[in-house]
Design brief:
This protein is mainly α. It has 28 helices and no strands. α9 packs antiparallel against α10, α14 packs antiparallel against α16 and α21 runs antiparallel to α22.
Length: 523
């Protein structure tokens, strides 16, 4: 028996909230005949386990149904839990309400209560239209047809049938429109998540090929709010991927306006609001719009309070990953490393609780940014601990840019720690990795050449000269549209400047920010 099938009831029980567990016990006592006590007892026994152990359960329930047919008992318990969750969340969403109304429609129809069935269906149609639930509208249209057919069209005329056809065509048109936009969006995000931001002309052409679609020539081609959401999503991601943050910011703004002006439509999926706010905070950080960030961060943190009834583990995970990622990135960009350090305990707790359910790329960014925080504070052992978490996590795709930057940061940490005996090995390992990855761009080549030169430098003057030579090379790369995205991961230029000026990285970052703020005020 596979691990997934043997412990699925365990994983389901562990996902329940306290309220859901209480409701299950009430539900089980009302709906289970004969074995109700055994179900609850088995539920409690599994809930008490930290790691699923069927052997212990078999000993504990020696004379029960579970001992004789554990697979059947677990399946029944699993189904009972799902039924209790279905009842518990009966009013949790518009989708659930629509399914209930359709079920009522079916029941009334089968009892030949056609007028009542039609009235219930009309309620469903009104609700589905209001919330643009086009897939459900197709199901509603199916029942409308059955009601027409039930007395051989005695109550209908040709206009009714023509109107039905027109409604079907309109719904199908909007569904096709949404599906086409979803396909474009998914192709773009697959490329972005697999390859990262554009680093050469071939990758730019791949992005342009996706975006060059007639649907994207005009936002009026988006026939519903959901399709318009995808339209803005596609363009904000496209400009983000090619490093054009100013245009990405424009489309993220439109994104936010669409959601906030149509809050009722998007209230069912607060995850979308999470994502857009998180992206806006990141863009504001990169564009140095620091005065806007507290507003968006405040909106992000307010979501759970305005959606108390809709909060669930998925939303809790999104809230954790979005808010802490945004704050951590903000404090790093603004040089507030002590404030970033204050987040570490909460981030560690969240990673321990949610790591298996977070995207691997999100986990990788947490590891990388935590390493930067400790690096900036001069705690190189702490920095090495977090970067090793990234590099040693087999679940994190080593083809990702974040893994590549992790290897570069790992070299820098060893340089700061004076691990001269480890640097040659780490250097060769990084070379092999980049060669195998087949994505050695100018930045990687420049940095590896620097490490090679540095390893041959004997005197303090020669070492200092290595950093002085590297600085203009990095400055030129930072202006290259295909290379500049590298500098979002870590402020390599400031680190190099600090090395030949003999100023700690943390102090250099703060000085640059203060000088930048002064320039902005003077301008």
């Amino acid at each position: 028996m596979s691990k997934q099938s043997s412990d699925q009831v365990f994983r389901l029980i562990k996902s329940l909230t306290s309220a859901e567990k209480r409701y299950f016990k009430i539900f089980a006592s009302r709906h289970t005949i004969g074995d109700k006590n055994e179900y609850v007892s088995l539920f409690d026994a599994i809930d008490k386990q930290e790691v699923y152990n069927e052997g212990k359960l078999l000993v504990q329930f020696t004379n029960s149904t579970f001992a004789h047919t554990p697979a059947i008992a677990k399946n029944r318990l699993y189904e009972t839990i799902l039924k209790s969750l279905h009842a518990f969340h009966a009013d949790s969403s518009v989708e659930v309400e629509l399914q209930r109304l359709l079920h009522y429609t079916e029941i009334l129809f089968k009892k030949s209560l056609y007028d009542e069935s039609k009235k219930t269906l009309a309620r469903a149609f009104k609700l589905a239209t209001r919330f643009e639930k086009h897939f459900t509208l197709l199901e509603i249209q199916k029942w409308e047809k059955r009601l027409m057919e039930k007395d051989s069209y005695a109550s209908n005329n040709i206009e009714d049938i023509t109107n039905m056809l027109q409604q079907d065509e309109e719904i199908l048109g909007k569904l096709k429109n949404y599906t086409d936009f979803w396909y474009i969006k998914s192709r773009l995000f697959l490329l972005l998540n697999k390859k990262g931001k554009v680093r050469d002309s071939n990758e730019l052409n791949n992005f342009k090929t996706i975006i060059d679609n007639t649907l994207l020539k005009n936002e009026d081609k988006a026939l519903s709010y959901e399709s318009r959401y995808l339209y803005y999503h596609i363009y904000s991601a496209y400009y983000f991927g090619i490093g054009d943050y100013k245009n990405s910011y424009i489309y993220i703004r439109k994104h936010l306006e669409l959601i906030e002006q149509n809050a009722e439509l998007f209230d069912e999926e607060p995850n979308k609001y999470f994502a857009v706010l998180s992206n806006m905070i990141y863009l504001c950080t990169q564009l140095r719009k620091f005065d806007e960030i507290p507003v968006y961060l405040g909106k992000l943190k307010a979501i759970p309070h305005s959606n108390v009834r809709k909060m669930n583990e998925d939303m809790e995970i999104k809230l954790f990953s979005s808010t802490f990622s945004a704050e951590l990135s903000l404090y790093i960009q603004t040089g507030e490393f002590d404030m970033a350090l204050d987040l570490v305990d909460d981030i560690e707790s969240g990673l321990k609780k949610y790591k298996s359910k977070l995207s691997k790329i999100r986990v990788a960014y947490f590891y990388f940014n935590l390493s930067i925080v400790y690096f900036a504070l001069g705690d190189y052992s702490g920095a090495l601990k977090w970067i090793n978490q990234l590099l040693n996590d087999s679940d994190i795709d080593s083809s990702q840019d974040i893994h590549c930057m992790g290897r570069i940061l790992n070299l820098i940490i060893h340089l700061e720690m004076g691990n001269s005996d480890l640097i040659p090995y780490t250097f060769r390992s990084t070379q092999r990795y980049l060669s195998k990855r087949k994505r050695i761009y100018r930045f990687e080549s420049v940095f590896l050449n620097f490490i090679n030169r540095l390893s041959k430098a004997d005197t303090t003057a020669e070492i200092k000269n290595c950093y002085q030579v590297l600085r203009p090379e990095l400055q030129n790369l930072s202006k290259d549209p295909f290379e500049k995205s590298v500098f979002e991961y870590f402020d390599f230029i400031t680190w190099v400047e600090g090395k030949f000026l003999n100023v700690p990285f943390r102090k250099m970052v703060r000085q640059k920010i203060e000088q930048g703020n002064l320039k902005e005020l003077l301008n």
